[in-house]
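Thread title: Can someone regenerate the structure for this chain?

I was given the following input by a collaborator and told the matching structure tokens would be attached. They weren't. Posting the sequence so someone can regenerate them.
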Amino acid sequence: MKPVNTLLGQTGTTIFTVMSALATRHGAINLGQGFPDTEGPADIVQAAAAALLDQRNQYPPLTGLPELKAAVAAANARFYGLDIDPVSGVCVTSGATEAITACLMALLNPGDEVVLIEPLYDTYLPVVRMLGAVARLVRLEPPGWALPRAALAAAFGPRTKLLLLNTPMNPTGKVFTREELAFIAGLLAAHDAYAVCDEVYEHLVFRSTRHIPLMTLPGMAARCLRIGSAGKTFSLTGWKVGYVSGPPALVELVGRAHQNLTFTTAPNLQRAVALGLAKPDAYFTTLADTLQARRDLLEAGLQRLGFGTLQAAGGYFITADITPLGMAADDAAFARMITEQAGVAAIPVSAFYAANPPSHYLRFAFCKQPAVLEEALQRLGTWLAARPAA
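Best answer:
Regenerated them for you:
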């Protein structure tokens, strides 16, 4: 038999699938994979259900239903003051992961260089490589995750086509500051490069922090493609509805890539998401406040048990340092151990690096009900108490 695709043949099953399966097998509380354990807003779900019965279930337009595209453009203006063309400046995708792939397909040619910031979402690197592009990795260092400006500048060169920027950032919870974004913008302008901006956690930012899209900085609107996610914004991750906003010339190419990936997205879900994006400000504020309270609950509990914790300014996740516990296991072994023995699943942060990762951090998801987080902490406490002293 002739060999299959080399890259995919060497790519293992995603760590999220592995740890979720292990959690199921051991009856563990799954604080690994980032999905809420409650339904999204009832009015949005009801709108999607009703839309199934309105006899508009055939193929919707390739780049999205007009009402959702208009809602995405309106949300860009409402939250960030961005002027997005609702007809030619938005493309609706089947989830943000597809949006990331479509944006990279739209911009990259084989041999182009892409600047990626570690730790990074595990889809980024395989897609870049499958498109024949070359990754230039720049690493943020814990515990502060500050932007390493000299290293970032050194990663740019004559073949740099784009930077893939994730803010708020998975897994770190970092929200890039205006000063950091201004430095990035300067590099993009100097090297005539684009930015693909993964901003799926844009509305999950906590009170002490503000999310600033790179696209809002001077000169960046023509260089940026901005990705949002209904799954994250409305706690409906299984719906897989994403959207790309940007200059029409670039969004048109994203649409062509989208045409060759999924072609379109379920029309009833699109109509329901359009309703959601028009919700009053109180919805978005309450969403962030609720998650912040759950972050605080989990963070305090982990510290009480002896873990170190790193600041999370947005998103679904908190990073915990296992070093203070005094155990010899690395993060992958520790994650497996607590899943099997304590009944709590987490993700080893080493999974978010291409090579030579730090090996003593775990990512815990706090987008769960408080009672679930309390039970997880109780299980971890019982397990730690039963272990022999180091």
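The CA atoms of residues 240 and 349 lie 24 Å apart.
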